[in-house]
Amino acid sequence: MRKITIILLFAALSIIFTSCSQDADSRTSSAGKTVNDVLSNQTETSTQFSTASKSPVGESTNEQKADVDLTELNSTMVYSEVYNMTSNPDKYIGKTVRMNGYTAIYKEALQTYYACLIMDATACCSRGIEFVLRDGNYPEENEIITVYGTFNTYKEGSKTYCQLKDAVIEA
Fold first, then answer.
1. Domain boundaries defined on the chain
2. How high is the mean pLDDT in each 10-residue block of the chain (171 residues)?
3. Which of 2.30.29.30, 1.10.240.10, 2.60.120.10, 2.40.50.140 is the CATH number of 30-169?
């Protein structure tokens, strides 16, 4: 009986310690900074220094500055910020976003949806944001992409969805 209790306790603790957290707002770095603090600092730093980067397909070679550039963050921070964006979308409406991840395609009877999915640090959970491309030239499923667009929300029925509209895939 004691062995069974120990095994069940071990299994329960394993599940607790390996499952994904649903409380992204409580995630902070060891210095006590939140994701928004890091992004604010990143925005201030990016105005002081210029770096070479990818340019959108069909656009000029000048980098388009993103209000929220998720390509500069580590996997834990990116996952946390995308969680924030999908949980509190009103704070991001109208901001330009750059993110990279895997292309996911979801088809319904009359509509096809494309999203850029990112994984958390342990690769057990994924989050994504739908995108609507300016040129309509969509990538294949599971293709690694960097997408740049304007954050927006829309309603279908009673649900609100997030998307990057007027988006481009960067080369």
1. 30-169
2. 66 55 41 52 40 39 79 89 94 96 93 92 88 96 96 94 96 78
3. 2.40.50.140
